[in-house]
Design a protein that fits this description.
It is built from eight helices and 20 strands. It is α+β, with helices and mostly antiparallel strands. 51% of the residues are buried. The structure holds zinc ion (2 copies).
Length: 329
């Protein structure tokens, strides 16, 4: 093996170990979900990897799907189709980049963020706001970029974890600020469904964070419909499900649903450290999961909670999962 092939081999080993860990976790988890990433780059824009190298890593990480979202159009499409990868795009617009999925042609932005989002909506695309506070460690967005998101019609999709420039762990300080931004928007009554994507610019980091999507089949149309409805959790380790009465993630809960309490199921075959319930921007409850691989509980939701509730599970090695919010009416 060439000396410089070795780092990629190490990343293969990490991805293989994570895939095995998740396979073991799945045996303890009652729900079917598909595991995948909505954001990555190749040599068709500023990534260093080829489509074939991306596809190889997707296979090693045992992901069910991977979108390749190059910056400058969709020239990657024919090769992606050959390798079973899905195609998106990520052009820049005013203040933000735009993650665009499910659109069969290249989108040319008007460089007006709100107008571009409205146009993508009109075109029937599934779009998301990538790295909403900037990307680690080189770019911190101005507060203006935070502020404009308040003007988006809800619900919309936003990356709460972005793995750009990371190789092994996706979570970093821009993701900590994205989480603050997310809770701020949710507290104001906006519906913001979260995604966790690698934004891989090298095949090395494919699989370091992913989304568990509750769709009935692993077809692009079904997966996109599920994330538009908020039926997914993001994770770099644990599996997570939460319901409030009949309302699942991404749904509106009624007063009757609240009576039933919040039901939480978290799984990690490597052991769970803690389960946190966040409501209206605050930590509402925290449970010590005592390194157990399976944790399940029903908890009462206090009457004072008004806007939303969501759950975070942290594994014994600090890897984590965020549920999408359940919105309160
Ligand atoms: Zn970007
Ligand atoms: Zn990107």
């Amino acid at each position: 093996m060439k000396r410089w092939a070795y780092p990629l081999r190490m990343c293969h080993l990490v991805a293989e170990a994570m895939a095995a860990r998740i396979e073991r976790s799945k045996k303890l988890f009652r729900w079917k979900f598909f595991r995948g990433d909505f954001h990555s780059h190749t040599q068709h824009s500023d990534g260093i990897g080829t489509i074939a190298e991306t596809a190889e890593m997707v296979k090693i990480a045992k992901l069910d799907f991977q979108f390749v979202t190059d910056h400058w159009g969709i020239t990657q499409a024919p090769e992606c189709r050959k390798h079973g990868l899905w195609v998106g795009q990520e052009p820049g617009t005013q203040l933000h980049h735009l993650g665009i999925l499910g659109l069969r042609r290249a989108y040319a932005p008007q460089m007006d963020f709100l107008a571009d989002c409205a146009e993508l909506q009109r075109l029937g695309a599934t779009w998301f706001v990538p790295h909403p506070t900037g990307w680690w460690p080189t770019r911190i967005y101005p507060k203006e970029a935070w502020k404009i998101l308040e003007k988006l019609p809800s619900p919309f999709l936003m990356e709460v974890c972005n793995g750009a420039s990371n190789v092994i762990n996706a979570f970093d300080f821009t993701d900590a600020s994205a989480r603050i931004l997310w809770d701020g928007l949710l507290r104001k009554g906006r519906k913001v469904h979260a995604l966790g994507n690698t934004d891989a610019h090298a095949p090395h980091s494919i699989g370091i964070v992913w989304n568990g999507v509750f769709a009935s089949r692993c077809a692009e149309r079904d997966v996109l419909a599920a994330i538009r409805a908020g039926r997914s959790f993001l994770s770099d380790g644990p599996l997570l499900q939460t319901t409030l009465g009949r309302a699942g993630m991404g749904m509106d809960a009624s007063a009757a649903d609240r009576q039933n309490g919040l039901r939480i199921t978290a799984v990690d075959s490597e052991g769970l450290r803690s389960i946190r319930v966040i409501a209206d921007g605050r930590l509402l409850m925290e449970f010590d999961a005592r390194n157990r691989p399976f944790w399940e509980r029903r908890v009462a939701l206090p009457r004072r909670v008004r806007a939303y509730v969501r759950v975070e599970a942290t594994a014994s090695d600090a890897r984590r999962a965020y549920s999408n919010p359940i919105y309160l009416r």
